[in-house]
Amino acid sequence: MHILAIVVGIIAAAGVWYWRAKAAKEVVDDVGSVVGRVQGRIRMNNFRKKAEGSALASIEDPALAAAVFLHALANEKRDALHLAEPRIREELGQIVADTDLDEVVSYAQWAARDVADARDVVRRFKPLWRQKLTREERADLIVMAETIAGLGEGDDHNQKLTLVTLRTALGPEQNR
Questions:
Q1: HSE of 71 in the Cβ direction (CA atoms, 13 Å)?
Q2: Taking the chain (176 residues) in consecutive chunks of 10 residues, what is each chunk's mean pLDDT?
Q3: For residue 116, how many C-alpha atoms fall within 13 Å in the half-sphere facing its CB?
Q4: Can you give the chain as a three-state secondary structure string?
Q5: pLDDT of res. 143
Q6: Which residues contact 107 (CB under 8 A, 6 or more apart)?
């Protein structure tokens, strides 16, 4: 009888330890899953930044850069986007040849569609604009941006921040 009690005790102890080991494995698996998801998100964000930058990296024309920026700025206020697109075309018509306008607008819409934040566009094109635009042309770009941001009802906080970033980036020469 004692032997039977010892055997049952050993089997019960083995069962308890098996259950504990199984619970610990599940915790480790859950932690591993969370770590994997975090690593995946980091990789996806890095890829997204590279993909976003690649469409912008090939732009060397300040007018095309301005077009992408204006579209990215307009995309921040979705409810006024239908008002912004014809206005952007009108603004770009002043600085882009009529023969190239459709191509510039189409490329700008496509490139701006994947831009997460219009301030990134300002940071990306700041050296290009400072190098290739005169002070008056930079002031005109700021006015264009203010016009696009002013469309629609209400003010968008992101657009305000973008305009401040643009003014700072294109302001007087000491702000380089």
A1: 22
A2: 86 89 87 86 78 74 92 86 88 88 90 86 92 92 91 81 91 57
A3: 10
A4: CHHHHHHHHHHHHHHHHHHHHHHHHHHHHHHHHHHHHHHHHHHHHHHHHHHHHHHHHCCCCHHHHHHHHHHHHHHCCHHHHHHHHHHHHHHHHCCCCHHHHHHHHHHHHHHHHCCCCHHHHHHHHHHHHHHHCCHHHHHHHHHHHHHHHCCCCCCCHHHHHHHHHHHHHHCCHHHC
A5: 92
A6: 64, 67, 68
> Which residue bears the tokens 């920026």?
69
Spatial contact of 81 and 94, defined as CB atoms under 8 Å apart: no
Residue 100 token pair: 């190239």
End-to-end CA distance of the chain: 90
Here the tokens at position 71 are: 């579209």
Among 68, 73, 77, 78, which residue's Cα sits nearest to residue 109?
68
Amino acid 173 reads E
Exposed, middle or buried by CB within 10 Å (0-12, 13-18, 19+), for 117? middle
Nearest-angstrom CA–CA distance, 152 and 159:
12
Which tokens is 17 given?
A: 């330890």
